[in-house]
Amino acid sequence: MFIPKKYGQSKIDKCPFCQRHATAMNSQKVPVCQSHKDEVIDNLRCVCGLELETMHGKFGTFFSCVKCGNINMKKALEFNALKPKMHNENFSQRAKTQSNKEMTVRSDDPRYFD
Predict the structure, then answer these.
(1) What pTM did the predictor assign?
(2) What is the pLDDT of residue 95?
(3) Domain boundaries, given as residue ranges, for the chain
(4) Are 65 and 48 in contact (CB under 8 A)?
(5) Angle at CA 96, nearest 5°, toward 95 and 101?
(6) How far apart are CA 13 and CA 110, in angstroms?
(7) Contact 62, 73 (CB under 8 A)
């Protein structure tokens, strides 16, 4: 059965960090969402163990390995787990500020008996 393509549904880029719709490009020309625009994809490894080089072509971003050749972005991201650096730093700072809060409870306070 033939299902025709609809306008705007043929290619939908996803952010490699959070899997949301990619609406911006970072400095490596990788499509990412607005919140990860300053993030950089580093230290991606191929299955053979060599480091992958980020490249940009006519059909989007792909990676190149010296031994294996060109690898598409989806396969390269399956081999490597990406975590945004900015998100981890913000989370740790938020946890520190929450743990430093001091709460005083008096005996006539209703929270005292909870």
Answers:
(1) 0.62
(2) 53
(3) 24-98
(4) yes
(5) 100
(6) 52
(7) yes
